[in-house]
Amino acid sequence: MKHIPVMLKEVLKALGDLHGKRVIDATFGAGGYSRAFLEAGAEVIAFDRDPNVIPDTDILKSEYKDRFVFVHKPFSNIAELTEIFDAIIFDLGISSMQIDIPERGFSFRENGPLDMRMSEIGESAADLIENLSVQDLAKILRDYGDIKKAGVLARILKNERPKTTLELKNLIHNSKDVAPVFQALRIAVNDEMGELEKALSAVPDLLKVGGKCICVTFHSLEDRIVKNTFREWTSPVGDPRLPIIEEAKFKSIKTEVPTEEELNVNLRARSAHMRGVIKSY
Ligand SMILES: C[S@@+](CC[C@H](N)C(=O)[O-])C[C@H]1O[C@@H](n2cnc3c(N)ncnc32)[C@H](O)[C@@H]1O
């Protein structure tokens, strides 16, 4: 199924008038956000590390010519950009296309190779289980999946070396742990937290005064990184007991969650949060 953009209405409202604005869409996916930004008159640079999105980027390139540029790289590479922008948007996580194709190995509902690589290069989830120590694997399951008996499960995985999604699922005895284990491995395979931290640290210097950064998050770990980073940027700098305090560089944009109306048509929006900041000087 083609990915339905999540919270697009709220994102567009938070961004305001986009005519002539320069926007980074850090997560192209099926291009729903990029297309909406282009239709609103923006110039868009889009990033995605998944090679499967390229045909959709070609369609936008032919429609919008040099108003649309696609960079087939992880979004932490925004740090290499030398211009400044009016808006930077992250719509995190995976797309419906990624989860729906069993051969990509993201889904525990259908059998496929235990892959989970968004970029289709580097170590797969099966490689990770093969190559990590029991301790490191347990840490991933604990930190990214909140798995209680992570050590026990890590040892089982190391012994059994699952190569398919179904083999992995069958090794997880507590059915409540299946989704969190898949999530934990996916986060580790794609270094999702590292990518987000690196990209966010580049944002302040890439935004013009008045520029906005908007993030749509889907699970508590990425949401915490965004929330804490934005809190730091929107807090005054210095010791509050001393007279000289530097005013915060950013102001918050109101956090939003999906409407009932959206949830009725797109269940995948259910855990989404939209957070944003605007650069004040
Ligand atoms: C939720 S989808 C984005 C959907 C998009 N907003 C739309 O409307 O179609 C997330 C996309 O971000 C990409 N992605 C996730 N992490 C990435 C990263 N660190 N670097 C580049 N692309 C990434 C995924 O490959 C996926 O295609």
Helix and strand arrangement:
Blueprint: H1 8-15, E1 22-25, H2 32-39, E2 43-47, H3 54-64, E3 68-71, E4 85-91, H4 96-100, H5 125-131, H6 134-145, H7 150-160, H8 165-171, H9 178-189, H10 192-206, E5 207-217, H11 220-233, E6 250-256, H12 260-265, E7 273-279
Parallel strand pairs: 1-2, 1-4, 2-3, 4-5
Antiparallel strand pairs: 5-7, 6-7
Helix pairs in contact: 6-7, 6-9, 10-11
Molecular structure report:
The protein is of the alpha/beta class. It is built from twelve helices and seven strands. It has two domains: 8-97 and 193-279, Vaccinia Virus protein VP39 (Rossmann fold, 3-Layer(aba) Sandwich); 120-189, Putative methyltransferase TM0872, insert domain (DNA polymerase, domain 1), CATH 1.10.150. It has helices at residues 8-15, 32-39, 54-64, 96-100, 125-131, 134-145, 150-160, 165-171, 178-189, 192-206, 220-233, 260-265, and strands spanning 22-25, 43-47, 68-71, 85-91, 207-217, 250-256, 273-279. Strands 3-2-1-4-5-7-6 form a seven-stranded mixed β-sheet, sandwiched between helices. Helix 10 (192-206) packs parallel to helix 11 (220-233). The site of S-adenosylmethionine has 21 residues, from helix 2.
Task: State the gist of this model.
The chain has helices spanning 8-15, 32-39, 54-64, 96-100, 125-131, 134-145, 150-160, 165-171, 178-189, 192-206, 220-233, 260-265, and strands at 22-25, 43-47, 68-71, 85-91, 207-217, 250-256, 273-279. The protein is α/β, with parallel strands linked by helices. It binds S-adenosylmethionine (SAM).
- Percent of residues in beta strands: 15-25%
CATH level 3 topology of the largest domain: Rossmann fold
Main beta sheet: 7 strands, mixed
Class from secondary-structure proportions: alpha/beta
Rg to the nearest angstrom?
20 Å
